[in-house]
UniProtKB/TrEMBL annotation:
Residues 19-227 form the Luciferase-like domain. The lineage of its organism: Bacteria, Bacillati, Actinomycetota, Actinomycetes, Propionibacteriales. Keywords: Monooxygenase, Oxidoreductase. The keyword Oxidoreductase applies. This is Alkanesulfonate monooxygenase SsuD/methylene tetrahydromethanopterin reductase-like flavin-dependent oxidoreductase (Luciferase family).
Amino acid sequence: MPDYGRELSFGYFLVPNAADPLLTTAREVEDLGFDYLGVQDHPYQRRYVDTWTLLSMIAAQTTRLRLFPDVATLALRQPALLAKSAASLDLLSGGRFELGLGAGSFWEAVEGFGGVRRSPGEAYASLAEGIEVIRLLWSGGRNLRYEGHIHRLAGAVSGPVPPHPIGIWLGAYGPRMLGLTGRVADGWVPSLQGGDATWVAEASARVDEAATAAGRPPSDVRRILNVSGTLTSGPSKGLLQGPADQWVDELTDLAVGIGFDTFVLWVSGGDEAAQRREFAERVIPRVRQQVAQERT
């Protein structure tokens, strides 16, 4: 599998639990030197604050941290308004926003919240069309028209234009969605939780194949991985369940062996604040060093 040679970045996955000190955590993440902060988007969860409102508040209280929904639920967010929100947040944050995007999941909850339950084929079509609509609304054009099977524009006016090219990163898993990622997306953002990394290598290869078939260099698609695990002081208990040395080796393999350039820490156990600090101090610099050594 290829290593695309991108500079490594590291992020933190924030669960928007209303009872947690979310803004304090975001400021701490920036102070620790993380590059990104991703916020999951499940608005039907009664204990969660709204992801977009939280991202806006975090943007106002940070200066360097790059932000993205991890990932936005298109099933509950109309694409033209999603494009407007993304462009506005990018402008107000000084170009620090990227758009993580997914077709939707937990369809019973989506339907209960007023959304439309879609079949796999409809969800695919909605996402493919939604990407086109979003990019049209970022174009700066006027009298924008689009007639899809699910989404449409009937003379919309674009604006504000994002101050930097916002990446569209797809949370994709199935073969058709991986193909769409390779053909049109700027990034791929899956989650690695337990087990082994075999499936993620196979899925990345599907993205590469789709990109090549579409006439794109596979390196055009960034690889962002949510890594769920726990840093421990004891022996390994599996993938991303062990001491810092193990994490360094495993993340290095994912970078140089599969091509991931960004790792977003999703703490699955233990003291979250302590886990963030240990990851920032004992994992991030050593992964950067080890990847640089293996590349040379």
